[in-house]
Specification:
The complex is a heterodimer of chains A (about 200) and B (about 190). Chain A is mainly alpha-helical and about 200 residues long. Chain A contains eight helices and two strands. A two-stranded antiparallel sheet of chain A has the order 1-2. In chain A, α3 crosses α4. Chain A starts with a helix and ends with a helix. In chain B, α3 packs antiparallel against α8, α4 packs across α7 and α7 runs antiparallel to α8. Chain B is globular. The chains are: A mainly alpha (about 200), B mainly alpha (about 190). At the A-B interface, α2, α4 and α8 of A face α2, α4, α7 and α9 of B.
């Protein structure tokens, strides 16, 4: 029963309601932090942490926050957790902090987080909100890692820093800015295609 | 000083274009670029808010540092920007209905525009003074306007092309942006003569 519930939720976060591939939100970090798979995992974990904590707190406060000021209140909660994550990464993972740079504080304006607060945590009890935060975060991370791995493999010929391809640094375009847009565009087109052929 | 400011303008408007090489503000870029006229309106609204926001966050940062709470930067900036956008909307409605007619509908969209917060944070990171911050944010917004207007022009033409079903909408928009980014990368090898 419990396991079934978790499986179902996970399927919802990663496949049917994937924040990036299905809802197309949060494009900026998706493009900027996927130069390689390692950065993508780092960004994904930061978002899971912020999303889970903010969903939990917002769900706890959902009956206390007046409806009119709910958006500013949500933003304060989210910004608090973003600051915590920002300071933690700066202290314990300086190379990741360098690589992600300004995109850690920018998690605060990531539409996915405010979107889940508004659409889910503000209306549901704590436990389901935490589960929603985790599965949505995992869906976001899965999308990021897929794009990061593709770009790293094509651009540098490595995966998580390990050389696995017979070529090295030959198709650098994929690691640079244009590669981000083109990869994400092609992956989205591929998913559209799969969805269409599955629907027929 | 002049040449230093000019270097900031050219670098941040063209070489390090906010969308095409820094990936900030991609959501409004994809969302409000169906026609050149709306793209132009969005560009103007972003310019207005971005310059105002970086002027105010400059002083907010001074206050935070003075109070010894620099770690509250993210929290303070996002609240100031959200409040600013609301205030601009209300004031514009009262003082200049014509301007409100032109830019009003874009203003709420700007709060969630990561470029505004991003540029405010970057200006602090680059240790810019007040004038530099203003010039930097204005040039960045000009870069945003250039990119979104060009992109809207391409999209207007694209309506007449036969795009494969799976590519319609966001995928083709992203690939077009990728090709634009490729073109803008050509500026990367360019050395400023001053």
């Amino acid at each position: 029963m419990q396991l079934d519930y978790i499986k179902k939720e996970l399927y919802r976060g990663v496949v049917t309601e994937n924040p990036i591939f299905r809802i197309v939100l949060g494009m900026c970090p998706t493009l900027a932090t996927t130069t390689n798979a390692t950065n993508a995992v780092g960004m994904g974990i930061s978002v899971i942490a912020v999303l889970t904590c903010s969903n939990a707190v917002i769900s706890l406060l959902r009956n206390v926050i007046p409806n009119k000021v709910r958006i500013p209140a949500f933003i304060v909660v989210i910004a608090t957790f973003v600051t915590v994550v920002d300071l933690l990464i700066a202290a314990f993972a300086p190379p990741l902090y360098e690589a992600l740079g300004i995109f850690i504080p920018l998690i605060v304006v990531n539409c996915i987080i405010l979107g889940r607060a508004e659409a889910f945590a503000a209306k549901n009890p704590v436990l389901p909100s935490i589960v929603d935060g985790v599965v949505m975060g995992v869906g976001f991370t899965a999308a990021l890692v897929l794009i990061g791995a593709l770009r790293e493999f094509l651009g540098a010929g490595t995966l998580f820093g390990h050389a696995i391809a017979p070529f090295r640094n030959e198709f650098i375009l994929m690691s640079l800015a244009p590669g981000a847009f083109i990869t994400l565009g092609l992956v989205l087109a591929g998913i559209n295609h799969l969805q269409r052929s599955a629907g027929k | 000083m002049m040449s230093h400011l000019l270097a900031i303008v050219i670098t941040s408007a063209i070489f390090n274009n906010v969308i095409l090489s820094q990936f900030l503000g991609v959501c409004p870029f994809l969302g409000v670029s169906k026609a050149i006229s709306t793209a132009w309106g969005m560009g103007m609204a972003v310019t207005f808010v971005m310059v105002l926001a970086s002027a105010i966050t400059f002083f907010v940062q001074l206050l935070l540092v003075k109070a010894g709470v620099g770690y509250l930067q993210t929290l303070a900036f996002i609240l100031v920007i959200a409040a600013l956008v609301q205030m601009v909307e209300i004031m514009m409605k009262k003082l200049s209905p014509a301007l409100y007619q032109a830019l009003g509908i874009y203003l709420p969209l700007i709060t969630t525009n990561c470029a505004v917060l991003g540029i405010a944070l970057l200006a602090v990171k680059k240790n810019y003074g007040f004038v530099e911050s203003i010039v930097y944010s204005f040039a960045t917004a000009a870069g945003f306007t250039i990119a979104i207007v060009i992109f809207a022009g391409i999209r207007e033409q694209m309506r007449f092309s036969k795009i494969p079903e799976a590519m319609q909408g966001v995928p083709i928009a992203l690939i077009t942006t990728g090709i634009m980014a490729l073109a803008f990368m050509g500026f990367a090898g360019f050395k400023l003569p001053f």
